[in-house]
């Protein structure tokens, strides 16, 4: 009796690599950038995007040690922090991320839109995490 098995884990890529920089923007203007999350593994996985906690450096070092998903930062916007997530959209100050959750089949990809609407003068940076289920 021959018995065999193959152990695999979730494999994914994120393009472009962090950080996403919107550069200088005129007040009242909008820019959009697209991040592509690709499933390079043999099984479907679910993802969820959420705002990093205030102590992101502790989470980042923990994630690096455990091989978990890395943070993706968005830069160059202004405004207070809003943590609301409605109908697949995550609003963070002047940033809007959509979709903020979903499922990706093997060898599939999901385009994630990051939109920046410059409202006030100044610089703002938000840090986001992409959590991959079953990694």
TrEMBL record:
Superkingdom as given in the UniProt entry: Eukaryota
Gene Ontology cellular component list: axoneme
Chain residue ranges for the region called Disordered: 58-89
Bias-annotated ranges (Polar residues): 60-75
Signal sequence bounds: none
Gene Ontology biological process terms from the UniProt entry: axonemal central apparatus assembly; cilium movement
Record-linked InterPro entries: Hydin-like, Ig-like_fold
Protein name in UniProt: HYDIN protein
Gene: Hydin_0
């Amino acid at each position: 009796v021959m018995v065999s098995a193959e152990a695999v884990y979730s494999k994914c890529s994120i393009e472009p690599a962090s950080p996403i920089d919107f550069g200088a923007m005129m007040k009242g203007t909008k820019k959009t950038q697209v991040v592509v999350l690709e499933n390079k593994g043999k099984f479907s996985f679910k993802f969820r995007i959420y705002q990093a906690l205030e102590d992101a450096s502790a989470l980042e070092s923990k994630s690096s040690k455990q091989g978990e998903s890395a943070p993706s930062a968005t830069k160059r916007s202004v405004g207070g922090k809003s943590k609301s997530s409605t109908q697949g959209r995550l609003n963070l100050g002047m940033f809007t991320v959509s979709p903020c959750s979903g499922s990706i089949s093997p060898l599939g990809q999901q385009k994630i839109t990051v939109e920046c609407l410059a409202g006030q003068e100044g610089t703002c940076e938000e840090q986001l995490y992409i959590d991959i289920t079953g990694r």
